[in-house]
Design brief:
Length: about 150
């Protein structure tokens, strides 16, 4: 497998997940949802944001972090975590075409053990004093840079 993927760690807000699923459907990116999510996949706000694009997404749901991590290690993929706690700007990181871009939950990011399990940690630099960028916005920015560097073709 060589597809670039977006993974969402226990997402809380269905509209963000729907927006990311629509982005992935349009760009041909795979998506992994690491459960438990804070909503059901049939949530009407997810459907409103994802619209009819949802049926076109290559989506895999993983029952928990452990199962997801086992799967991605077996498939020898790197995990690249987007986090406000990294000093490394996302534009300086060298992406591979089969990387999994991992994003934390809206309420709390990812726990420490997930932070430690990944191969890369990247930051979208922000103005001093600002806390974080919307999950779907940060996914679009980082996926865009990874696609640019790896000459991704939908
Ligand atoms: C709304 S933010 C989470 C904020 C959360 N309170 C925290 O402390 O991490 C949701 C996710 O978007 C991504 N994100 C948001 N802003 C980011 C930034 N400036 N750099 C890298 N990732 C970012 C991260 O993956 C983050 O876990």
């Amino acid at each position: 497998m060589t597809d670039l993927r977006i993974a969402l760690y226990q997402p809380d807000i269905p509209g963000n997940t729907g927006t990311i699923l629509r982005l992935a459907a349009c760009l041909g990116l795979g998506v992994d949802i690491i459960e438990p999510a804070g909503f059901d996949i049939s949530d009407r706000n997810l459907k409103r944001a994802g619209m009819d694009y949802l049926s076109a997404v290559s989506l895999t749901r993983h029952v928990n972090w452990q199962k997801f991590d086992e799967w991605r290690r077996t498939s020898r993929r790197r995990l690249v975590l987007a986090t406000t706690k990294s000093p490394e700007p996302y534009t300086r990181f060298s992406y591979r075409p089969d990387d999994i871009l991992l994003f934390g939950r809206e309420s709390a990011g990812v726990p420490e053990h997930v932070h430690e399990a990944v191969e890369g940690r990247i930051l979208i630099p922000m103005v001093e004093g600002q806390r974080s960028i919307n999950l779907a916005m940060s996914a679009a920015m980082i996926a865009g840079e990874a696609m640019r560097q790896t000459a991704w073709q939908p």
